[in-house]
Amino acid sequence: MDPDELLILFCGRIEPLKGIDMLLYATKIMIEQNPDMRVGLTIIGGNVSQPPSQWSKELQKLEELRHLLRLAPLVRFAGQQPQEILPYYYNAADVAVMPSHYESFGMAAAEAMACGTPIITTNATGISTLIDGRHDLLITSVNNPLLLASQMGRLLMDRAQHDQISQQMLNTVQDLNWTTVAERVVDVYAATLQHVQH
User: Fold this and answer.
1) Residue 143: is it exposed, middle or buried by C-beta count within 10 angstroms (0-12/13-18/19+)?
2) What gap in Å lies between CA 41 and CA 158, rounded to an integer?
3) In 3D, which of 122, 94, 92, 126 has the Cα closest to residue 110?
4) Rounded to whole angstroms, how far apart are CA atoms 167 and 162?
5) Strand pairing partners for 98?
6) Checking DSSP bridges between strand 6-11 and strand 139-140, what pairing results, if any?
7) Is the pLDDT of residue 163 over 90?
8) In the chain, what are the domains?
9) Residue of higher predicted confidence among 50 and 165
10) 49-58, 64-73, 136-145: lowest mean pLDDT where?
């Protein structure tokens, strides 16, 4: 990989609900708007161990779109990766993008944040509630490749802002460990029981 290349990362299941096609369109738009930008997109997920003709229907659709948009040299399908390898991808990425139409929480986004990687996600995902309201740059709308392209471009080109958001991502997820989450669940149950008893 080119050390000067800016890396965009998607990690998750390969299915239409994830909006990966919008990420490809947004990448194309961003490159056309910033022709000097050196960028790569790595998509983690799905089984790519077979020839493309044997890939899942959704992966084949994305592969066709990758060629149609002339993004083949820039977009890499990395397939499924072991859990212990994922932090290396998150740490190498300049931004992680989760353009889902729906997501109950978004574990991959939380993992990226824990590595200090800024994430751009849609307002339809549970993880968006973790992102401070000041960071409108990190929340996009579903099926909006123009807005997503603009957000990715701004985040990748403004290193000062990128680094500031990176630190804030780390701070945001510090308390997302199992102990704290369990304590919050217990607090919710206790408050509910207290309310029911009165």
Assistant:
1) middle
2) 18
3) 126
4) 9
5) 121
6) unpaired
7) no
8) 6-197 (3.40.50.2000)
9) 50
10) 136-145
